[in-house]
Amino acid sequence: MKIIILSGIFGRTPEIEMDLIFPEHEPHFNVKKLIAKLSQKKNVKCYTAPCLHGFMNKKSDNFNKEEYTNYLGLLKNILI
Known about the structure:
21% strand
């Protein structure tokens, strides 16, 4: 799995398919606006998890085991 720094994607269009998972809210940017902008790009699919930042990080205070399992399953299905 690759970690992507999103600030570099705005001026580019990915050549491969990208699936991005966002939390419902981020304190540093508007998630809905970002998803709307990124979703216009070819090869980009965005998902919003009903969770907080860090929900897929087992070391995070915001870790959510149920949503982690759900989105990990989604990612596995995408790769298969």
